[in-house]
């Protein structure tokens, strides 16, 4: 505990830093969802929030520090465990294959997002909220960009909007795919600004099969809505299935624009 203690101004308490600026890391449960929150120091107001969704078979801890530069600009960076991941692996239905496990996670994570946003508003006030996600988290980010108008901007990384999933057989998951598939329902995304970023060497989502048709669907939708500038697509040379530093920096610029 550091409350009530004083520190020498030339050699203060060692804390997490981003660019020389200290920030805090807290664990909270928001609407039943375990989260880590990176935020400005005590006494500094939160002016905006960024929800960061991780990929399949990962957990919130893997995103610590990735977007912490936002804290120096007065943002809270909120890292939830997606459904069925991290602290929540015991919630899975029996008998799911690997792809059904991923999509049940996406479906549940999308369903609980409005309550998480409510909890964020109760915690920080009615601040603007941006959403980003990588891989499976990119499925969530795209869906929230279309369905949740409290999302000010969204960035979907190393992901796809094609959602062709022959291994998914459960009726409720097939229904979710049909109702939310981005290349089919891209018209619901405008006017929310959206960034789609991919690596040109991604073996999980090859560019021509995933990024190209997804970007084309969004470009058409945003042009039809009269806001073509609202959609941005970026391809990063040599990048495989990971969030690269340049990709992360593109997200920061997009959110701070």
TrEMBL record:
Keywords: Hydrolase. Residues 47-168 form the Serine aminopeptidase S33 domain. InterPro entries: AB_hydrolase_fold, FrsA_esterase, Hydrolase_4. GO terms for molecular function: carboxylic ester hydrolase activity. This is Serine aminopeptidase S33 domain-containing protein. It comes from the Bacteria. Coiled coil: none annotated. Signal peptide: none annotated. Pfam families: Hydrolase_4 (PF12146).
């Amino acid at each position: 505990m550091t409350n009530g203690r004083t520190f020498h101004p030339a050699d203060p308490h060692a804390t997490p830093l981003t660019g020389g600026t200290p920030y805090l890391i807290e664990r909270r449960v928001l609407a039943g969802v375990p989260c880590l929150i990176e935020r400005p120091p005590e006494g500094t107001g939160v002016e905006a929030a960024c929800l960061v969704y991780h990929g399949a078979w990962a957990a919130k801890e893997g995103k610590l520090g990735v977007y912490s530069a936002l804290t120096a600009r007065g943002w809270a960076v909120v890292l939830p465990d997606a459904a069925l991941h991290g602290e929540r692996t015991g919630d899975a239905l029996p008998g799911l294959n690997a792809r059904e496990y991923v999509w049940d996670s996406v479906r549940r994570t999308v369903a609980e997002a409005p309550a998480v946003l409510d909890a964020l508003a109760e915690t920080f006030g009615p601040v603007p909220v941006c959403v980003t996600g990588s891989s499976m988290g990119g499925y969530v980010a795209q869906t929230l960009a279309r369905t949740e108008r409290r999302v000010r901007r969204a960035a979907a990384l190393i992901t796809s909007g094609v959602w062709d999933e022959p291994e998914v057989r459960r009726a409720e998951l097939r229904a979710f795919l049909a109702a939310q598939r981005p290349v089919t329902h891209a018209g619901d995304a405008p006017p929310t600004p959206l960034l789609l970023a991919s690596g040109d060497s991604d073996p999980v989502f090859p560019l021509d099969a995933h990024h190209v048709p997804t970007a084309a669907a969004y470009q058409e939708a945003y042009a039809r809505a009269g806001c073509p500038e609202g959609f941005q697509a970026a391809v990063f040379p040599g990048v495989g299935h990971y969030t690269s530093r340049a990709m992360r920096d593109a997200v920061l610029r997009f959110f701070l624009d």
